Amino acid sequence: MTGHLYEKNGKYHMMINAYDENGKLRRRSIATGLKVKNNKTKAEAMLRNTIRAMELQAEELRRLSPDKRKLQSITLAEAVDRWMVGAKRRIDAITYQGYDSLVRLHIRPYFKANGILLREATVEQMQTFFDQMAESGRANGKGGLSPRTLRLLKNIVYQTFKEAVRDGVIVANPCEYVILPSLTRYDFHYYTREEMKALLAAIVDDPLYPVIKVTYTYGLRRSEALGLKWDCVNFEDKTLIIKRTVVRVSEIVEKDRTKNETSRRSFPISPEMETLLRGLKAQQEADRKLCGKSYVNSEHVFCWPDGRPFSPDYVSKHFAKLLEKHGFSHIRFHELRHSSASNLLSMGFTLKDVQEWLGHSDIKMTANIYGHLDVQRKKMLANAMEFSETSAQNGASERTTA
């Protein structure tokens, strides 16, 4: 094993030459982090120590079992695929679909193209990958990935390296010191009560009207609204229970549970909502008789005349078309939930009320998202302070007069 120093951007780098177990020469560049000026002796010592450490590592590799030795020669792309196989058994189906999409679109193509070996990956290489994804990582080539998506990517690569550390393939995790762009706050849009009233009046005859009204009224997530079945509706007790979800990433998954424990919640059914739901129930019974054996007994509250439940994609896309058709400003379907929360705050309800209505696990989340909209409460506080100040002045006057 040999090596030499070379200069790049005013710093020393090491080029290590070594032969693999198949007799093929492999060259590896390693940054020293040392500036060229006054650091030649230190860089030469670092080169000698690095070669010695790599020779010892190669000697240890020769003593490894065939399985362990095989891990030493796999690429990072192959290692990610290996981690994904294990992850599929451990994580939620929806989470796995999201990870699989990120691996397929971003991680695998990038690392397969450059052929980086798992055991030779460096912090510098990982930083370059994430920087490139941040700048131009979108599949359509138009811009970079969001800070949130970058964090999901990092988790996959980080966990892959963590597994490699556990298996003794590498000593440290190269993703440990990768720096990502700061998370940015998404400025959501919402409709006022007047805008929601106008929208519902305009779309009252559309098949999507019931799901839009229920979603807004109860501040539901799309997955929660589409997860409603008739066993969630109790007309006798007049309650609506949120207990399952329907989500799609690459394929539709129905789960008999909510996002978290606090998301499982119940709502009162108002007279207006009871009329709506009973009308849907009656229409479905008529459709069932009309379709006969071809009717799909899905028991979903929101479905097509043949019983098939609405798909998440259809709901979002058709909602956008409805807004455009009737001349309303664009909001995402999820922003019906924001509209519900925002309007509750505008009517004077507290953040705690909104937290419970939306099913947030922590009031901090509610405050982070909607705290800046809590205008009504702030007006009350301002008025209270003004009143207190006036009272104090009056009190001072009375004491002076006395």
Structure summary:
The protein has 402 residues and is mainly alpha-helical.
Q: What would you note in describing this structure?
A:
By secondary structure, this protein is mainly α. The protein has three domains: 2-63, no CATH class; 73-166, DNA polymerase, domain 1; 193-322, hpI Integrase, Chain A (Orthogonal Bundle). It is 54% helix and 11% strand. It has 15 helices and eight strands. The protein has helices spanning 40-63, 66-72, 76-90, 93-114, 123-136, 147-166, 193-202, 209-218, 222-226, 271-291, 312-325, 335-346, 351-358, 363-370, 375-401, and strands at 2-8, 11-19, 25-35, 233-234, 239-242, 245-248, 252-255, 265-268. A three-stranded antiparallel sheet has the order 1-2-3, with helices on one face. The protein has a three-stranded antiparallel sheet with strand order 4-5-8, with no helix packed on it. A hairpin with a 5-residue loop joins β2 and β3 (25-35). α3 (76-90) crosses α6 (147-166), α4 (93-114) packs across α6 (147-166) and α8 (209-218) crosses α12 (335-346). The N and C termini lie far apart (98 Å).
